[in-house]
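Teaching note: in complex prediction, the entire set of molecules is handled at once rather than each chain in isolation. The prompt given to students was simply: 'Predict the structure of this complex.' The entities are:
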Amino acid sequence: MIRSVKLIQLLIAVIPAFTINAQDVNTLITKVKGNIDKVNDYEATARMITNVSFLKVPDADVKVYFKKPNKLKIKNEKGISFVPKGAVSINLNNILSGSKYTAIDAGTDEIGNTTVRVVKLLPEDDNADVVLSTVYIDEAALVIRRAKTTTRANGSYELEMSYGKYAAFGLPDKIVFSFDTKDYKLPKGVTFDFDDGTQNNRSAADKAKSRNGKAEITFSSYLINKGVKEDVFK
Amino acid sequence: MALIIEVNHLSKKFSDTYAVNDLSFTVNEGDIYGFLGQNGAGKSTTIRMLLTLIKPTSGEINLFEKKLSAHRSEILKQVGAVIEKPDLYKYLSAYDNLSIFAKMSGIKVSQKLLMQQLQMVGLEERAKDNVRTFSQGMKQRLGIAVALVHNPALIILDEPTNGLDPQGIADMRNLILRLSRELGKTILISSHLLSEIELIANRMIIIHKGNKMVEGNVAALLDPAHTLIEIDTLDNAGAKQLLLQSKWALFIQKKIQLQLMMNKTEVPQLIIDLVAMGVQLLSVNSSHSLENYFLSLTTQSGHVEAFAN
Amino acid sequence: MWKLLQIELFKISKRPRTYIAFVAVAAIVFIFQFAFKADGQSYMDLMLQSVKDTFTFDRVQAINGYFMCYIILNTLLIQVPILIALIAADSISGEANMGTLRLLISKPISRTQIILVKFAAATIFTIFLLLWMAITALFLSLFIFGAGDMLVFRSKGDESQILLITRDDIMWRYSAAFAYATVALTVIAALSLLLSIFAENSIGPIIATVCIVIVCTIISNINVPIIDKNVKPYLFTSYLVGWKGFFYIGTDMDGKTIKGSLENWPAIRKSLLILIAHIFILITASVVVFKKKDILS
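The expected output is the structure of the full assembly:
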C-alpha cells in the first residue's frame, strides 16, 4: 500500500505541470494555515449528534476545548458521551501542521455551489498513522470544506465543514465527521435479555452501512484565545 | 331439648376404604358426649367432618339445627375445638396466638378478655412467652383457651388428654365438668379410653372401623346389672361344680374360667356363699361388661348383639 | 378480609425466615456495590471491549447509581424467586406442618378467603422485598456512586446495542420496572401458593417452585428458532425479564433516542397481561384445589 502510494507520488512528481501546481497548493495551504494559526486556543459550545448503528444516544450538549499545537477534547459536562476517537482531527491543525507532508494538487471539485481545490497530502514519514489525507479547499474563503483521511489503524474518516462568522479563524459552524466503526459485541452470557419480539430485518447493505458512523457537531459559540486550562485535556 | 349435633348416615370413603360408614348420632344441648373408639376407628375423621376439614362422601350434618354445608360460617362461630394435638404458632406468644384465633372467630378482642382466658387455664404468667418454650400440658391448656375464647356453645375436644400426665388429665377432667355444669356448654369429647369417658360423659357412642357399635346413656350402658365377676380359686373346676348346683348357676358364663354376670349389689352375697361352700378363694374381680366388650374390639371386629342399640 | 390480612401480615412479620430474604438481598447488593466501587472500570472495559478502539468515553461517570441498580437487578431478579418462594410456598404447607391449618379451617372463614388472604400477604411481602431492593440497589447506589446518565448494554437478536438514557429520563423507568417486577414476582408467589396446597411441609413446594423457575428460565434462554416460536411464548419465565423493556428507549430513524419513550410498549403491555393472566389462573386453581382438599394433617 505504502509502496504503491510512493510510486504514484513518484509518477506525479515527474509531470512538470503538476509540480507547478504543487507550488500553488503549497501557497494555498500556507494561507489556510495562516487563518488557523490565529487561534491559540478556544473553548466552544456545541451540540453533538452521534449516528452509529449500535449506539442509541440522545443529542449531547458538549464543550470542545482546543489548545495549540494539537490538543483537543470533546466533553459532555452533564452526562456521558461516546466520542469517536478520530474526532480529534476536527482540529485541522492536526491535518495541516502535523508531521511533514507532500502536497499534490488534484484538480478542482464542487461542494454545493462552491468550486474547491482538491489537495492530497502525503506524509513523508513512512510510519505515520495517517496514510493519505485529501483536503478540499475553498480558495476564496481560504477554508477547508472537506477532508478525507485514511489511517493505518483506525480506518478512514471524513470531515465536512460549513462556515459562518468564525470563518476568519478557520473555525467551522458545523462539522460532520464520518468514520469507520466495528460492530459492537456484548461479551457472551452477561445478560438475560427481554425478547420483545422486535426483529432485526437488516439487509447486508444495511449491515455494511452499520460499519459507518457519523458525528455531527454544530457549534453555537467560540471563545477564542481566552486561555484554556491544561487539566481539561486530561 | 335442642339438638346441637345431628349426624345422619354420614360416610367418608378414602380411596377404597370407608373411614366412616353410615354413621348416625345426636348430641343434645348440655350433653357431655363421649365419642369412643380405638385408634383409627373413625373418630377423628368424624370430628373433622363436623369441623368442615373433611368433606363427607355422603350423609348430612346439622349443627344447631342448621345444615352445616349451607351455614358453615354462622355455625362455626359457635364452635370451639381442640383437634388432636393443640398445635399453635410456635413463633408467637400465648397471648398473640389467643388473640389471632379470637379475631378469626369473629369476636371483638380486648386485652382484658384475653388475659382472663389465659388466667382460666393458668397461663397468665407466660402470656408473653413464645409457645415454642411451652410444655405439652401448657400447650394443651392454651389450646383449650383458644377453643373457648370466643365463648362457643359447642366445644369439640379430640383426645384432649393425649400426652398429659395424671395431674394434667385430672385438671382437664375438672375443666370439662366445670364447662358443662357452670357454663352449660355442650361438649363432644373423643377418647380411646372408656374409663375416661365413663367419668365425665352423660351420653356416649362407640364406633369401630367407621361403624357405630353402641350409642346411649352412659348410666344405662354402664348399668351395674352388667357387672362381670371373675373368680380365681385353688380348684376352679371344683368351684364351678359347686356353683352349678347353687342358685348362682344362672349367672355362669359359658367359658372355661369362672365368670359370672350379675348386678354389682349381689357380689357380697356371692362371696359369702362361696366361703360357706368351702371354696378356697384367691381373688374376686369385678369389671363392667362394656369395658370388656370395648377391650375385645382390639382383637376382634364382631358386632356384639347384646349391645346393639 | 382486611382483619385476616392484618393477622396474616402479623404472622409473617413475626417469623425469622421472613427476614432471610431481606438480609440476602442486602448482602448481594452490598457485594455488588463493593466490587464496583473497587473495580468497576474493569467491568466497563469488558463491556466496551469491542468498541474501545473507536470511541472514548468517561468510565467514571458511567458507573453511577442508576447503572449499578440495573446491573444488580439484572442478576438479582433471577435469584429473587427463591426468596419469594421461601415465604409463599410456606403459606399453606407451613400451616399444615405446624398443625395450625386444622384450627384455621375450623374457624368461620371460607377457604377462598384463606387463599386470597395468603396470596395478598405474599404479594405484600413481594412488594416490600422490591421496595427494599429499590432502597438498597437504587437509592443506596445513588448515594454511593452518584447519579448520571445511564448506559444499557443489550443484545438484540444477533446484535448488541448500547443505549444511553439521560439522567432526567430514568426515575420513571425504574418506578415502572419495579412495578413490572412486582407483577412478575407475584406470579412466582401464586405458583408457590398453589404448590404449597399439595404439601405438608414447605421444603417440597419451595424446591418445586425453584425447579420450575430454573428449568423454564433455561428453556427461555435457549436460542433455537423452533423453541423461540413454539415454546417460549408459553413460558412465564420468558416474561419475567420484561422489566428491562422500560430501559429499551425508543429511537428515531437516525438512531437518536427519544426522551420519555419506549421502544416497544405494546410488547411490554402484552407481557404484563400474560403475567396477570398467569396470576389469575394460578390463584383460581389454588382456590379450586384448596376448596376440594380434605385436611388430614
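Point out the following to students. Chain C has one domain: 2-292. The beta strands of chain C are 55-56, 150-156, 159-165.
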